[in-house]
Automatic annotation (TrEMBL), chain A:
It holds the Pfam family CcmE. It comes from Kangiella taiwanensis. Heme binds at H124, Y128. The gene is ccmE. Residues 136-151 have a biased composition (Basic and acidic residues). This is Cytochrome c-type biogenesis protein CcmE. Belongs to the CcmE/CycJ family.
UniProtKB/TrEMBL annotation, chain B:
It comes from Kangiella taiwanensis. Belongs to the CcmC/CycZ/HelC family. It is a multi-pass membrane protein. The lineage of its organism: Bacteria, Pseudomonadati, Pseudomonadota, Gammaproteobacteria, Kangiellales. This is Heme exporter protein C. Residues 25-189 form the Cytochrome c assembly protein domain.
Length: 151, 252
């Protein structure tokens, strides 16, 4: 490669590396803002601020959903299989909301274990299953289900 | 190696590139249409629904969303590589390639964002959330549009090419951010289904991979068509273009 071309290529690569470094530092500094939600473990470690609008996310614990006899009040437990917290919500839940499924709640922390949500979003995980596979899993035991009934 | 190098130089010739792309294009289109037809058949009929996605058929959005999102990133990488070739080797046709990719890449990005939004409403319960994946993909759309706007704002084409190339190269930093966003941060968007073993049931893989191939080819076909238009636009004063415009075959 001719010298002036090599120099130009090096200048482009060097510039890109420097810029990537700068972007990496910015992203690192902002990482707490980029994270879309706090898992319950981070909440229990005190990383999430109280009385400020934040989001928490995790799995809806089995047998934890309690609906009010009348009205739209609902209470459930969000867990990441290490720690958990109780979420209170008034409103309509998304279609995908189900015990054992991922969920993200937006609202405020009242204490380290209590959260009052103003919005609840369902989180879809990376697993895609056709109905037949789900049925055979139900029949022969769901690998994920056994673990989470410990709560 | 020497042969590849010669080929690389030949592609730098507008006339040669115009002839070659003209020969490739019918084949690329034919392959695109065949794969698209098979892919759409599998996507829309011959594949199961997803068990948790409420209304059943929303999973089919994936067969457009994932290929469009993949192409939106790959197109940008291709743009940045072509821009580097243009700047380092002063190859005018490389700049023509950059300019040809930009609107197609922007369309792919828009398609990924739009289908994602339409899927997100019934699945997540929201059209849009400012999570890392969606925000960085939106930034990608602005980078494409920024390139197009920047390129259009110069009256001198070689200046436009250079300025645009620098923007295209700088913006490539966003690509790993988009790709790794679901791994680096907690996002509403799910993690990797395609590369994660066992995450995506084989019944969904067939239509997805067919559509991925089809959208790749569609992208190639659209870029080649735009590239041919770009070559004509950039070489209006050449004799071969005048001859081509008056209806005679381009001879080497």
């Amino acid at each position: 490669m001719k010298t002036h071309r090599r120099n130009k290529l090096l200048a482009i690569i060097g510039g890109l590396l420097l810029l990537s470094g700068a972007v990496a530092l910015i992203l690192y500094a902002l990482s707490s803002n980029i994270n879309h939600f706090y898992p319950p473990t981070e909440v229990s470690q005190g990383k999430a601020p109280l009385d400020k609008t934040i989001r928490v996310g995790g799995l809806v614990a089995y047998n934890s959903v309690k609906r009010a006899a009348d009205g739209l009040d609902v209470e459930f437990t969000v867990t990441d299989n290490q720690n958990s917290l109780t979420v209170q919500y008034h409103g309509i839940l998304p279609d995908l909301f189900k015990e054992g499924q991922g969920v993200i709640a937006e609202g405020q922390l009242v204490s380290k274990t209590e959260f009052v949500a103003s919005k609840v979003l369902a989180k879809h995980d990376e697993k895609y299953m056709p109905p037949e596979v789900e049925q055979s899993l139900e029949k022969y035991g769901h690998p994920g289900k056994k673990q989470s009934t410990d709560y | 190696m020497a042969k590849a190098w010669r080929w690389f130089h030949q592609l730098g010739s507008p006339k040669y590139l115009f002839q070659k792309t003209g020969q490739w294009l019918p084949w690329v289109w034919a392959a695109t249409l065949i794969l698209l037809a098979v892919g759409l058949y599998y996507s829309l009929w011959a594949s199961p629904i997803e068990v948790r996605q409420g209304q059943g058929h929303t999973v089919r959005i994936m067969y457009v969303h994932v290929p469009a999102a993949a192409l939106s990133m790959i197109a940008y990488i291709a743009m940045a590589i072509a821009a580097t070739v243009g700047l380092v080797w002063k190859m005018k046709m490389a700049f023509a390639v950059v300019r040809s990719i930009a609107p197609v890449g922007a369309a792919m990005t828009f398609l990924a964002l739009f289908t994602g939004s339409v899927w997100g409403k019934p699945t997540w319960g929201t059209w849009w959330e400012w999570d890392a994946r969606m925000t960085s993909e939106l930034l990608l759309l602005f980078l494409y549009l920024g390139y197009i706007a920047l390129h259009a704002s110069f009256s001198d084409r070689s200046k436009a090419d250079k300025a645009g190339a620098i923007l295209a190269i700088v913006g490539v930093i966003n690509i790993p951010i988009i790709y790794f966003s679901v791994k680096w941060w907690n996002t509403l968007h799910q993690g990797y289904s395609v590369t994660e073993k066992g995450a995506l049931d084989p019944a969904f893989q067939t239509p997805l991979f067919l559509m991925l191939g089809a959208i790749y080819l569609l992208f190639a076909a659209l870029v080649l068509m735009r590239l041919r238009a770009e070559i004509i636009l950039r070489n209006q004063k050449s004799r071969w273009v005048k001859e081509w415009a008056s209806g005679s075959e381009v001879k080497s």
